[in-house]
């Protein structure tokens, strides 16, 4: 019996097998190359337990009264942890602290920066100036400072953002930090830290805000200090 007519079908089946194996290998390679988070998600109660109740001379007073990012379906997904605290000193001066943290900063979910959420709340902003805050460990913390004004409230805001090991000052720098991490196979974590005082005089409250940041560095437990300031964790 002549088997010749079956050979084209046999060759076709072999080509299908080879093609299938190639596609499977490519799919496996793509899956292996997909970025993955570099930090685990932190439970809210655990994160809250790290926040100091006393920062220098300032003691925790309340969790309300802060300008928050606009609430919508997307912003609700932006943060694993959104902490707001108001601290008061014996002389009556008040500092407001906001910490917004997510263990995943990707191309869609990236933190709201204050220059976005304050205007959304009806505030007019002064020029946003870069500032380097000298930390107790000798490092300089790349930050920004501005005054937000509304009909009912003036607020001086000092803030910084960290994406993995970078401290981007601008939105485009933030996007680039995420992209660089993705190229290394990482979905980086990110945090935005904001400290502010009710005042229209930036020059008057800039130093107290910097001092508060330094005290926050000293009072934070190692896990929180690592998240806020990228200090190394001892192993």
Report on the structure:
With about 240 residues, this protein is of the alpha+beta class. It folds into two domains: about 5-35; about 40-230, Protein Transport Mog1p, Chain A, CATH 3.40.1000. Helix content is about 35%, strand content about 30%. The chain has six helices and eleven strands. It has helices at about 5-35, 45-50, 115-120, 170-185, 200-220, 220-230, and strands at about 35, 55, 60, 80-90, 95-100, 125, 130-135, 140-150, 155-165, 185, 190-200. Strands 2, 3, 4, 5, 6, 7, 8, 9 and 11 form a nine-stranded antiparallel β-sheet that branches. The protein has a two-stranded parallel sheet with strand order 1-10. A hairpin with a 4-residue loop joins β8 and β9 (about 155-165). The longest helix has 27 residues, at about 5-35. The relative contact order is 0.15. Mean pLDDT is about 85; it is low at about 20-30.
């Amino acid at each position: 019996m002549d088997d010749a007519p079956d050979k084209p079908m046999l060759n076709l089946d072999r080509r299908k097998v080879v093609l299938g194996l190639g596609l499977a290998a490519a799919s496996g390679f793509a899956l292996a190359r997909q970025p993955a988070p570099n930090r685990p998600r932190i439970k809210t109660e655990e994160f809250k337990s790290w926040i100091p109740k006393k920062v220098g001379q300032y003691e925790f007073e309340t969790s309300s009264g802060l300008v928050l990012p606009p609430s919508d379906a997307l912003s609700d997904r932006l943060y694993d942890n959104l902490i707001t605290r108001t601290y008061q000193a014996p002389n009556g001066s008040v500092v407001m602290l906001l910490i917004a943290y997510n263990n995943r900063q990707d191309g869609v979910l990236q933190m709201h920066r204050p220059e976005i959420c304050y205007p959304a709340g009806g505030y007019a902003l002064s020029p946003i100036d870069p500032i380097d805050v000298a930390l107790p460990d000798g490092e300089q913390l790349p930050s920004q400072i501005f005054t937000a004004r509304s009909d009912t409230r003036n607020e001086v805001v000092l803030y910084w953002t960290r994406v993995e090991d970078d401290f981007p000052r601008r939105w485009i720098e933030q996007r680039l930090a995420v992209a660089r991490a993705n190229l290394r196979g990482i979905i980086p974590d990110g945090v935005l830290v904001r400290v502010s005082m009710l005042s229209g005089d930036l020059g008057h409250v800039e130093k107290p805000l910097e001092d508060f940041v330094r005290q926050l560095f000293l009072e934070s437990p190692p896990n929180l200090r690592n998240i806020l300031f990228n200090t190394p964790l001892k192993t």
